[in-house]
Amino acid sequence: MKAVMVHAANDLRVAEVASPDAGDEGVLIRLAYGGICGSDLSYWKHGASGTAVLSEPLVLGHEVSGTVAAIGAAITAEAAAAGVEIGTPVTVHPATRVGDPADWPGAAERTNLWPVVRYFGSAAFTPHEHGGFSTSRRVRLDQLRVLPPEVSLRTGAVVEPLSVALHAIARAGEVRGRTVLVNGCGPIGSLAIAALRQAGAARVIGADVSAHALSVASAVGAHETVNVGLGEKLPENVDIVIEASGVAAALGGVIGATRPGGVIVQAGNLRAGAIEANIAGIVTKEIDYRGSYRFADEMDAAIRMLADGLDVSAVITHEFSIDNAEEAFRTATTAEASKVLLRLAE
């Protein structure tokens, strides 16, 4: 089968690798679509993502959808009870938690904070955890999330990033009737804007330095946009900020935009190591500054929202075949791209 593998910085290859089977206790997925994430781009450009450094070739990709192609004989009955059979359309939860829950107090309630997690397309551990940018992949039954008829396989590839956005919104608390600033309108930020509108936020403002990103933000429902790259000013006294840019220099501005007693959720990954930022207003305004990491059980909610009509089509700006993976990755780094998809089926 074909797989998109990174071997080192600037060394991305579409390779022929051995095809997996379901085994006795697994499920074989014939993959259809995969969304390119910032971590995929980082492995390609730098040979690392955060503190995870490549030490061997890695199949990338953790935002995927496909159909069930085979089910292990030992789990046939369990799969049927879960509504999983040959041909079922699915997306995949990319995390595998390692260790005993008793060793990590509180981790059972906040599963995204489990200290040791093997994640699709991650070099955090050796051997690396191969991702889903391939023709097929074996997964555990519990990793599957069935897609209802209202959610296409193409849209199913954005369930994972939408789950990240929903987790950030959940970390903010009640958003209905609130004014919310989303700083950074890449895929996560724009998906957050769409979800905030559906959740009843009264006023949603998108801010970015890119005119194209702001056009996507408007298309998914932002009431207003602010192009800070052109010197436009952020609003004042917003109730909640979803900081999705991950740019440390932006923190002073979003703190200034937040009302006294407001909430800032840091959804964008800040770079590792020391950063310089103007954060004094967190103290003087008694702002709640909250982190948001991946997601917990929001995949089910994401699928329900999509099935109920949440339109995120504007976030998907480009689509390429697996054979043109490097062109897809290059496109994903341009100002004209939001979510770039790979067609994985041969």
Explain how this protein is built:
The protein is an alpha/beta fold. The protein has two domains: 2-158 and 312-343, Medium-chain alcohol dehydrogenases, catalytic domain (Quinone Oxidoreductase, Chain A, domain 1, Alpha-Beta Complex), CATH 3.90.180; 165-291, NAD(P)-binding Rossmann-like Domain (Rossmann fold, 3-Layer(aba) Sandwich), CATH 3.40.50. Helices cover 24% and strands 29% of the residues. It has helices at 38-46, 76-81, 153-156, 159-172, 187-198, 211-219, 251-257, 281-284, 298-307, 325-332, and strands spanning 2-8, 11-16, 27-35, 48-49, 52-53, 58-59, 63-71, 89-92, 95-97, 117-119, 136-139, 144-146, 179-183, 203-208, 224-227, 238-243, 258-266, 288-291, 316-321, 339-343. Strands 3, 7, 8, 11, 12, 19 and 20 form a seven-stranded mixed beta sheet that branches. Strands 15-14-13-16-17-18 form a six-stranded parallel beta sheet. It has a three-stranded antiparallel beta sheet with strand order 2-1-6, with helices on one face. A hairpin with a 2-residue loop joins β1 (2-8) and β2 (11-16). α4 packs across α5 and α4 (159-172) packs across α9 (298-307). The chain is globular. The model has no long low-confidence stretch (mean pLDDT 95).
